[in-house]
Write a structure and sequence with these properties.
binds zinc ion, 4-stranded mixed β-sheet, 4 helices, 8 strands, Collagenase (Catalytic Domain), globular, about 25% strand, two-stranded parallel sheet
């Protein structure tokens, strides 16, 4: 009874963040920024932070690129955090025709804060990719194409609670067309993720 009451008291504040990735030029030179909340820790499992992504509705060629993006975080990121694929997960990456709007992709993050512990925990993440834009799916992008793998790797950084960062990192807001430097994590991205989820 007491435990039930505590649970009811705990689950009160729910927030929704929307991250718009325009990939336009900025002059930011700051280092990584942490949004302040993370995935729920499970002390009884390894890795302790497991994030399940459902990208089952994507075409096969897109799926391959998302796989590379999540493996980049898994290989170089934090010791206690790992991305898994699950078609049952409510955390989704999906395509949407959005017309000629400015953004390439949008990430929605729902997080809640527990009243007693004040623990800010991510509940759900979803990324919408604007399929109306020019995308490079496989190989080297042309100068007028956005590199899908770079953009998804960037979005997964938001999933893990990283904000936009300085130049020439995966988490930089500026990711020019025709480039692929966002595919690989840079030292600043790695420092950021290890700050939140632990060193390798
Ligand atoms: Zn972004």
């Amino acid at each position: 009874m007491k435990i039930k009451k505590q649970k009811a008291l705990n689950i009160v504040l729910i927030f929704l963040s929307i991250l718009i990735c325009l990939f336009i030029k900025t002059n930011s030179s700051s280092a990584f920024e942490y949004k302040g909340y993370s995935w729920k820790k499970n002390n009884n499992s390894w890795p302790q932070y497991r994030v399940y992504i459902n990208y089952s509705t994507l075409p096969t060629s897109f799926k391959k690129m998302v796989f590379f993006s999540r493996m980049e975080w898994n290989k170089k990121g934090a010791s206690k955090q790992y991305f898994y694929y699950s078609k049952k997960s409510r955390n989704r990456i999906y395509l949407k025709y959005e017309g000629n709007t400015r953004y390439l992709s949008l990430t929605y993050i729902t997080h809640r804060e527990y009243i007693i512990s004040r623990e800010p925990v991510i509940q759900e993440c979803d990324t919408k990719i604007n399929i109306s834009k020019n995308w490079n799916i496989i190989g080297t992008p042309m100068p007028w194409e956005n590199d899908l793998q770079s953009v998804v790797t960037h979005e997964l950084g938001h999933w893990l609670s990283l904000e936009h960062s300085g130049n020439l990192t995966t988490m930089n807001k500026f990711n020019p067309m025709g480039t692929t430097f966002g595919r690989s994590l840079h030292q600043d991205d790695i420092d950021g993720i290890q700050h939140i989820y632990g060193k390798k």
